[in-house]
Every structure is written in structure tokens, then in C-alpha cells.
Structure prediction request, 399 residues.
Amino acid sequence: MRILVIGSGGREHAIAWRLVQSGHEVVGAPGNPGIEELGTRVPSTDYLAIAGEYNVDLTVVGPEAPLVAGVVDRFRAAGRPIVGPNQEQARLEGSKVFAKQFMEDAGIPTARAVHAATREDARRALDAFGYPLVIKADGLAAGKGVVVAEDRASAEAAIAALGDNLLLEEFLDGEEVSFIVLSDGRDFVSLEATQDHKRIGDGDTGPNTGGMGAYCDGRILPPSEAASICRAVIEPTIERTGFSGFLYAGLMMTSQGPKVLEFNVRLGDPETQPLMQHMNSDFGHLLWRAAHGQLAGAKIEWNPGASVCVVLAAAGYPGTPRAGDTITGIEDCGAVVFQAGTSRTARGLTTSGGRVLGVTASGETLPSAIDNAYAAVHRIHFDGLQFRRDIGRKGLKRW
Ligand code: AMP
Ligand code: GLY
Prediction:
């Protein structure tokens, strides 16, 4: 098949890589220099026109913004097969206030929260909570609209910075798990659970980011736990909304069981990078089945062992990243390097975004996958490079 991959980050590079591995042809829009090496890059966002011009068989959407803007509705109206939720379903990610209300109505376990329509309401509501307290902006914020406030002064600063229309939410303690399924609107198939590393610093310290690394190894969730998450979270959501595409439940594994921190309506970034490397099925065929309502009975095969992705971020991230630093050492680093914030220039490959590269390696065990990923990281260089040194470490206790 010829498949249009919408997006321009590391997640989309990984999707394109997996599709090409399975013998499909890829068109990437707007794409990035990594995707360009695998197929055709069309640096435009006129997706429906591109799908027609390149006569693609299928389209898959990486990021949330086009989904929230209704790209799936437009493709379906034009009779073009596409994998993703429609605009209404995408509100599960597009509005945290809507998603919280949905979970409360559906009885899906989640953190207790109050909605504050204005900053003044938010300030007044502070008295009802202890600390740490989680403060979330309603709309899309690329992983940066959430502040964990340790005390009242930082809560007030967060409220001032995030604006009106906030959720104040009880802090949940535990390990975070990303649980993603692919749905055709009725039937779904689960992906292996992954763990992301949201904070910039080792040991989960510092501000939240889009994600500094992720791994999967088939041991993050026992099958019985995955099945109960499907029953409590995934099935009611698909039944109530007819959701199709990738449904991502960001879970906190609390002492009272798993609770939903957020829904995303797409694959995770960087979770997709290790997932694509660890998968041993024809991803294009799965996407085709999802787009055509034919996922009943689908299974995904996974390689043994583990895959680990370490994100290399630019100086300044998660604040304003510095651009223009020259990247060296990718070609013979010994891992698969998925590109995100990169540009191809006369000086070679340079940084042009916050998260620059996703260095992704596998191993027969999680410890060996971690070693392989970091051995490759140490062969890559750009000025100001930042990365976490503890990606995957939480999983070691299960090995
Ligand atoms: P979200 O975009 O809602 O997933 O929030 C981003 C990150 O903030 C999550 O991945 C968690 O690390 C953290 N977070 C969000 N909500 C909570 C919560 N209620 N308790 C603890 N941490 C949270
Ligand atoms: N890695 C978190 C996300 O994709 O939202």
C-alpha cells in the first residue's frame, strides 16, 4: 500500500519506518528529514489534496492538532480511508474539562477534580485542596499545560500563567503507564503497555515535557491488569463514543488501582518509537483493518525482549529551545534514530526543535536494550544536548 503519514515528529518517523519495514510505500506530510530518507516528503498541510495527488490507499494521523481540527471528518466525507477519531471524538484530548466530565459520567476511574471557569474561581477553589496539587489548562498544550504545584505560592503562579478555564486536580501517586489501543469504532486491539518519562530531569524532577524517553518490554502490565483496564476504561469509552483510531489512556497505577490522568486520541510520542521497533506485525495491514471496520480478532505480534527510546533534546528545552546546532554521529551510532526537531541545511543536519532525536534500540532483555540505547546516545553529539540517564530504569525491577 501507499500510506500517507500526517505529522512531522519522531512518532511519525517511527510509523513511517515500521511501514517501510513491512514493505509499504510512505508519503509524509509535512514530514521531516528522517521521513524524507524513507519515502516521499511533501512539506505541506493540505492533506486531502496530497492524498488525492499521490493516490494513497490509506492515511494515518500522528499528532492531535489535525484530529482536533477535523481532518478525519474531511477525509471520510471525501470517501478516503483514514485512521483516526473524528472531531467530536477528538475532544477527549482537545478539552481536559470535557474529558473529565466524560469520565465522571461513564464511571471511569480518574483523579477527583474541579473545573474553574476563571482564574478567580481557581484561586478561590484552592482552599479545598491540599498539596501537591495538579493544575491543568483546558486545551491542547503539547504536554506543557500541566503544573504540579507543591505549595500555594506555586499554585497561584501556575494559575496566573495558565489563564482561565482550568482543572484543579488531586495529585495521584504511583507509576505512570501509557496504555494505547487501536479501535475501528467497535472492535479494538491493545498495544503493549509503555512507560514515558515526562519530567526533564533524572528521577522525575523538574518541569514536564512532551516526553524524554519511553520503553516497552511486555512486562509493564500483567495480562490480567491489561484486561481489567480494557473493561474499566477502554470499552466504556469506545462504546459511548464509537471512537476509532488510537485511544491512549495515560494511567497512574495508584494503590487503589489504575486511574486515568488523561486521554490522548493518537499514538504517544515518544511511546511510538519503541513500540514500532518492538512490533513484529504488518502495521500497515492493522491500520487498513482499523480504517475498514475489520479489527475483530486482530492480534499484534511483539518481538521478545525490550525496546528503549532515549530522547535527545535541545538546549533550553522545555523552555524555548535553541536551534541551529549541528548534529553528528547518527549514521554509525548502532541504533535506529528517529528524527523530530531537525533540519537539513548546508552544514548538514541541525537542531530545529525541542525534542531533536529519539535514539531507539532493542535487546533480548530490558537491561541490554537500555545499554544498547545509551551506547548509541554517547556516539551522537550536538551542542547543548540534554537527555535523561534513567530511561527504562523503573522497569528493571520486573527483570
Ligand atoms: P496530562 O497531560 O494530563 O497527562 O499531564 C501531564 C503529566 O502530568 C502526566 O503525565 C503526569 O506525569 C502529571 N500529572 C497529570 N495529572 C496528574 C495527577 N492528577 N497526579 C499526578 N500527576 C499528574
Ligand atoms: N508521551 C506523551 C504523549 O504523547 O502525550
Notes: The mean pLDDT is 96. Residues 2-83 form a domain with the Rossmann fold fold (CATH 3.40.50.20). The longest strand covers residues 244-254. The radius of gyration is 20 Å.
